[in-house]
Amino acid sequence: MRRLQPPGWPAPRGYANGIEASGRLVFVAGQIGWDETGAFVSDELAPQLEQALRNVVAVLAEADAGPEHVVRLTWFVTSRDEYLSSLRQVGEAYRAVMGRHFPAMSVVEVSALVESRAKIEIEATAVV
């Protein structure tokens, strides 16, 4: 994998502008902050984010992949304001699961998710 950083652009923090990769593609459906029993771990954003990422990693493991193979993440959050006000906790939760691997990423605010208690849903693409 190679991070793509156009000359003169400011360095992104917590994500990459782009990733170049070749290999076997793995697509992970949207994961939310509930555990393997379908119980939400919390009603707060950061713990839900951490659990959603743990769920992504669990699906990746089924393809003999890990966080280091992720080339793209898309996060759907129900509150931009809550996301921005909890960036420190979000960063800690992210690093607890993904380490210091920062793929191409988008964060999108949505009006709601299908599961009413969900505050975040995360899709992933990996290349192994």
Written account of the structure:
The chain has three helices and six strands; from the N terminus they run E-E-E-H-E-H-H-E-E. With 128 residues, the chain is of the alpha+beta class. The chain has one domain (32-127): 60s Ribosomal Protein L30, Chain: A. The longest helix is centred in the middle third of the chain and has 17 residues, at 45-61. The model has no long low-confidence stretch (mean pLDDT 97).
Structural class, from secondary structure content? Answer: alpha+beta
Instruction: Assess the beta-strand content as a share of residues.
Output: 25-35%
Residue stretches low in confidence (pLDDT < 50, at least 5 long) are none
What is the CATH first-level class name?
Answer: Alpha Beta
Biggest beta-sheet profile: 4 strands, mixed
Helix share, percent = 25-40%
| CATH-assigned homologous superfamily | RutC-like
Question: Could you tell me the number of beta strands?
Answer: 6
Average pLDDT score: 97
- The H/E string reads EEEHEHHEE
What is the 3D shape?
A: globular
